[in-house]
From TrEMBL:
Residues 5-191 form the Lon N-terminal domain. This is LON peptidase substrate-binding domain-containing protein. It holds the Pfam family LON_substr_bdg. InterPro entries: Lon_prtase_N, Lon_prtase_N_sf, PUA-like_sf.
Length: 203
């Protein structure tokens, strides 16, 4: 089954089902997008453009979010929290008259029972500790250990300081173990990159 989605193309930003994404909306076209969503189904589809330029082609997979908390400002801007609902795959971009882009897409079914093996979880936490130490991050590891596998892996994937192509690869990973393995690889390479090179990519 396909659905029509209004999209917010934002480089370097991904959203996962079950997670939240705070957004500050100030551009007129995306203020229009939010206004339209509020009178319809409160859905906004987050997806990355392949290049950070106007009208750039889109990656094929993104995530639909539902507007939760929202603050409307007097000047028309919004502060809102988008709650991830489902990943989607673009079928085609639609020819529309709205200021914002729209697509026809199919929603991707997720394995709600996906878990990591004890070895996979331990390997991830071990590399995450190394990565955090190398980057100088302060982490409450006791809280991390209490997270379920999906929240932990998707949460780190969503906020990780990687380049857009790498973040897209994380979003497109077919299942939780594959995403976990990719995160381990990225943390390993990013944590050991040349100090004069801030870029990290799988390409």
């Amino acid at each position: 089954m396909t659905t029509r989605l209004s999209i917010f193309p934002l480089p370097g930003v991904i959203l996962f089902p079950g997670l939240q994404l705070p957004l500050h909306i100030f551009e007129p076209r995306y203020r229009a997008l939010v206004g339209d969503a509020l009178v319809r189904d409160r859905r906004i589809a987050m997806i990355q453009p392949q290049r950070p330029v106007e009208g750039a082609p889109l990656y094929s997979i993104g995530c639909v979010g539902r507007i939760g908390e929202i603050e409307a400002m007097d000047d028309g801007r919004y502060n809102l929290v988008l709650e991830g609902q489902a990943r989607f795959r673009i079928i085609r971009e639609l020819d529309v008259t709205t200021a914002f882009r729209q697509v026809e897409a199919e929603l991707i079914e997720e394995d709600e029972d996906a878990v990591l093996s004890a070895v996979e979880r331990a390997g991830f936490e071990r590399e995450a500790r190394r990565f955090a130490d190398n980057q100088g991050y302060s982490v409450d590891w006791a809280s991390v250990e209490r997270l379920d596998d999906e929240t932990l892996i998707n949460g780190v994937a969503q906020i990780a300081p990687f380049d857009p192509a790498s973040k897209q690869a994380l979003l497109e990973a077919p299942d939780l173990p594959a995403r976990c393995e990719l995160l381990i690889q990225l943390m390993y390479f990013y944590g050991r990159r040349d100090g004069d090179d801030d870029r990290v990519t799988l390409q």
